[in-house]
């Protein structure tokens, strides 16, 4: 499986969207500082993920979720959760 995921930085509240074929390992890498793009924004919590059987589908979904419409989709999808966590 290939995963598209959204993380939220507990340090600055900003979101990060990415893809991987091993979601648990990638989350550990983000939180241990091994990922250069996010090392200074640790720690992270997993907010959302989707699973795809094809890598190309996961990367296409990642690209979409990084657009304005994709960000709105995630915020609407997580509306109840976000209202509870602030």
From TrEMBL:
<dbReference type="Pfam" id="PF01541">
    <property type="entry name" value="GIY-YIG"/>
</dbReference>
<dbReference type="InterPro" id="IPR050190">
    <property type="entry name" value="UPF0213_domain"/>
</dbReference>
<comment type="similarity">
    <text>Belongs to the UPF0213 family.</text>
</comment>
<protein>
    <submittedName>
        <fullName>Excinuclease ABC subunit C</fullName>
    </submittedName>
</protein>
<feature type="domain" description="GIY-YIG">
    <location>
        <begin position="1"/>
        <end position="75"/>
    </location>
</feature>
<dbReference type="InterPro" id="IPR035901">
    <property type="entry name" value="GIY-YIG_endonuc_sf"/>
</dbReference>
<dbReference type="InterPro" id="IPR000305">
    <property type="entry name" value="GIY-YIG_endonuc"/>
</dbReference>
């Amino acid at each position: 499986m290939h995963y598209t995921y959204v993380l939220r930085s507990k340090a600055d509240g900003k979101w990060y969207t990415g893809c991987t074929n091993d979601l648990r390992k990638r989350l550990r890498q983000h939180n241990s500082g091994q990922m250069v793009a996010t090392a200074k924004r640790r720690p992270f919590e997993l907010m959302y993920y989707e699973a795809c059987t094809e890598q190309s589908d996961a990367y296409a979904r990642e690209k979409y979720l990084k657009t304005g419409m994709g960000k709105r989709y995630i915020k609407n999808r997580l509306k109840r959760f976000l209202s509870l966590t602030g």
